[in-house]
Amino acid sequence: MTGSVESFKRLYGVKPNVDLARKFLSDAQIATPVLINLQYNPDHYGGNSSEEYAAVKGQLEASGLFRVDLQSTEWVAYQERRSSDSYPVYQFGWFPDFPDPDNYLTPFFMPDNMLVNHFQNDTITRLITAEVTEPDSAKRLRIIGQIQELMARDYISTLPLLTGKQIAVSVKNVDGIKLGPSFKFQFTPLKKTGGTA
After folding, report:
1. H or E, element range at 68
2. Core-most of 12, 45, 118, 138, by most CB within 10 Å?
3. Cα 24 to Cα 138: distance, rounded to the nearest angstrom
């Protein structure tokens, strides 16, 4: 997506760095293994959530630095408890309403945000307000990049663990396959344009 900056990968690397994590925890005088109570939802985000979060647990515990208490809750109770601070660390899936990078900023990082995670920062609020009102697209993208950088470096109120893609596949001689502006498949007439399928 235009405006997306992979600040977490740039700042912390693409692969886990156990030595750096051990040093960070030691410097902060945090005893290991650190207990993480991790909550996920098994029925709202697709059938793979259990396997995905078992993999997250396995990766964290393989480092020897963490012990993960992995728990799941059905969606209705999950939403209630998540919003009332019952889960210190939890899964929250997000699919944007429209393809704009602000869809990953305003809902999460403005005061009284939809996550109800108590994140509030005057600098971030000022920058988000600036980017949503900036008419110059190049300036706006620079501000969006700055917000992503600050969130990854200084605040980390959310941590992107898993990402997915939407892909439409066809043979060369099929026309009319489109993903619309809301990332939804457009069921327009498909046409065979010649050749064999």
Report:
1. strand 66-72
2. 45
3. 36
What lies within 8 Å, CB to CB, of 12 at 6+ separation is 152
Q: For residue 84, count other CB atoms closer than 10 A to its CB.
A: 9
DSSP characters over 79-100: HHHHHTT--SEE------SSS-
- Residue 40's φ and ψ, nearest 5 degrees, are -140, 170
What is the rounded distance in angstroms from the CA atom of residue 52 to the CA atom of residue 152?
A: 22
What's the angle, vertex CA 67, arms to CA 64 and CA 70, rounded to 5? 140
Kindly report the pTM of this predicted structure. 0.82
Least confident range of 114-123, 139-148, 163-172: 163-172
Q: Indicate the helix (H) or strand (E) that contains 71.
A: strand 66-72
Mean pLDDT, range 153-169, rounded to an integer: 83
| CA gap 17, 8 in Å, rounded | 13
